[in-house]
Amino acid sequence: MFPGATASRTDAAYVVVGAPLDISTSFRPGTRFGPERIRRFARPFDDYDRRTDLRFSDCSVHDHGDVRAWDDAPEYLAWLAGELRDVVADDAVSLVLGGEHTVTAAGVAAADPDVFVCLDAHLDLRETYDGNPYSHATVTRRVLDGDDRADGVDADVDEAIILGARTGSPEEWERAEGEDVTVVAPEEVADFDLESHLDGRSAYLSVDVDAADPGFAPGTGTPEPFGLDPRTMRDVVRTVAPHAAGFDVVEVNDRDDGQAASLAAKLTREFVFSHAGTAD
Amino acid sequence: MPKEQKQVRELQEGSYVMMDQSPCKINAYSTAKPGKHGSAKARIEGRGVFDGKKRSLSQPVDAKVWVPIIERKQGQVVSVTDNDAQIMDLETYQTFTMRIPEDEDLNPDDEIEYLDYEGQRKII
């Protein structure tokens, strides 16, 4: 159980859902261990948050456990999206713990936001990766453009804002020039006026832990240097959370001493405190 | 009760199933693989045929569920008053009053199709 997620499902305002998908990781695998590792490295944190004067265990968080993954991404995403739609139907916000970034498509489909906000080192705008439209390297493209070919997940947002992106293929940079994509380089994230850019629209926030510089979060599948520092990521989470209909943190694996999982767990809690602190 | 029992695995998108004692049309059907320690499960999401409410259930694929037998019938509009129409069934000549769906424009003598389940009716 995620520490402090003590609410019952019926009372929950937030539902933690583990999504340990690990089938398209292209360099270092291990995201199947992400959810349990994030829960474990959330243990040392204080229940009380000074900034918001809230206790995490008073924020009505429930831990649904993991939605067991198997090796067919479109099928799994359809199943996961259904589970997450149940959370939305109960007027709760899902907090998905990945798993590879592919799981985000299910979270977005369930939450149905206007804008997709993503902290990520990579653009993830490929149409396919190694011929696969449902890969961790294609998720932002799926969220933007959906997919006509499979019974996968129908996510369709108006705009994607990718914060901290610093690498991609020529095809991806070309897609990023579209009016429905905003890319903010790592060195510009801190000064980017995200609040104005959101303009009151509902958002889904996806945190790919590789947005952080690998020095802060080595335990991830495709580390990419020159990344964000944790406090900049924290500030993004604090800004987006009040507008967010759903949240995930993905791409954490077990290949470090817990730095990536610790950061993921802390950002998850930041999301809850910032969202709960502004809830009506 | 006009309903029959089926296994969850026999259901598909577009077919009907009873959820919370209400007939629902299935709009999403997905299955989860069992792994070593689970059983194959199916998720069904649907919308109430007569009340429009979203409902879902998650069951093992070999579980039994009730499938309502919803009849599709022909009727004729006898008269229209505000948002209600008086309809005559073209088979039994029984007349009854129905609420007109918001996007429909009905006039006397129009022939319509409607769904009927245990006295609950809906113009389609």
Give a written overview of the molecule:
The complex is a heterodimer of chains A (280) and B (124). Helix content of chain A is 30%, strand content 18%. By secondary structure, chain A is of the alpha/beta class. In chain A, helix 8 runs parallel beside helix 9 (259-276). Chain A has helices at residues 34-41, 73-89, 104-111, 139-145, 170-176, 186-189, 194-198, 230-240, 259-276; strands at residues 14-19, 48-49, 54-55, 61-66, 93-98, 115-119, 159-163, 181-184, 203-208, 244-250. Chain A contains 9 helices and 10 strands. With 124 residues, chain B is an all-beta fold. Chain B has strands at 3-7, 16-19, 22-32, 41-48, 54-60, 64-68, 71-81, 84-89, 95-99, 111-117, 120-123. The mean pLDDT of chain B is 93. The interface between A and B is medium-sized, with 14 and 12 residues.
| Strand and helix order of chain B | EEEEEEEEEEE
Strand content of chain A: 15-25%
Approximate strand percentage of chain B: over 45%
**Oligomerization state of this entry?**
heterodimer
Helix/strand-derived category of chain B reads: mainly beta
What portion of residues of chain B is helical?
under 10%
Binned, the helix content of chain A reads 25-40%
Protein structure class of chain A: alpha/beta
